[in-house]
Amino acid sequence: MNDKQKLLFDNLKNLKDYWVKTSVDSLNPNTDLIWSDNENEYKILQSKIKTQEELVAFAKIQDELIKGVIHSILVMIDGGDELADNYLLDLVDRKTKESLLHDIALHEEFYNYLVDCEEE
To answer: What is the pLDDT of residue 120?
Structure first.
């Protein structure tokens, strides 16, 4: 993994972590939910998910789902789904025009990157 690929993975992990934290924080009844289109649904969950154990379980599920979505998007960028039959997607450095897909399967390396981060 080169520095540019690591920067991509850092950003994806930070996005994942931000939205997991936001979703868990939104279970606090005092949280302003103006950002969400699902305020009523959060209020339902606020009344159901209250203990620390329940919040941790919710956070783990959110983390897993967001990782899955990121993985699926990276598979699409890597050309591993039906979109590749019609379109090729790429992430390219603006200055060097170098592809971030060079010698790497982003969807596989992202999971390896996350495993390494979680071990630290």
So the answer is: 63
How many Å separate Cα 44 from the centre of its chain?
24
Provide the token pair at 120: 């630290």
CB 74 within 8 A of CB 107: yes
C-alpha distance from residue 93 to each of 10, 26, 36 (Å): 16, 36, 33
Q: What is the DSSP letter of 92?
A: B
> Model-level pTM?
0.86
Report whether 54 contacts 24 (CB < 8 A). Answer: no
Are 62 and 19 in contact by the 8 Å Cβ rule? The answer is yes
Indicate the helix (H) or strand (E) that contains 4: helix 3-25
Decide: 62 and 15 in contact? Cβ < 8 Å: no
